[in-house]
Design goal:
Layout lengths: L4 E9 L6 E6 L2 E7 L10 E5 L2 E6 L1 H15 L8
Parallel strand pairs: 3-5
Antiparallel strand pairs: 1-2, 1-4, 2-3, 4-5
Organism: Thermosphaera chiliense
Family: Belongs to the HupF/HypC family.
Pfam family, one: HupF_HypC
Length: 81
C-alpha cells in the first residue's frame, strides 16, 4: 500500500532539475523533489509520496487529510501533523 502524506511547502530551490522543495510534514522539514507541473510556492499545501511532491491541494483538503490521518492513526490529537 502506498501512502502520500500532506505537508506545507517551506521553501523551493529552483537551481536544480527538478526543483527541490522543503516541505513541513508534521514537525519535520524534509527535502522533496518537486515533480508536478503546477506552480508551487512557499505556503502551498502538497501531497508527498516517497520523497516526491505528487500533487498540490487546497488548505481545506489539507486540513481534512490531517484530520483523517489523526483518526486512522488512533492517536487523535496526540501527534502533530
Amino acid at each position: 500500500m502506498c501512502l502520500g502524506v500532506p505537508g506545507e511547502v517551506v521553501s523551493i530551490d529552483k537551481s536544480s532539475t527538478p526543483p527541490i522543495a522543503k516541505v513541513k510534514i508534521g514537525g519535520l522539514v524534509k527535502e522533496t523533489l518537486l515533480a508536478i507541473d503546477e506552480e508551487v510556492v512557499p505556503g502551498d499545501f502538497v501531497i508527498v509520496h516517497a520523497g516526491v511532491v505528487i500533487s498540490k491541494v487546497g488548505k481545506e483538503e489539507f486540513e481534512e487529510l490531517i484530520k483523517l490521518l489523526k483518526t486512522v492513526s488512533g492517536l487523535g490529537g496526540e501527534i502533530e501533523l
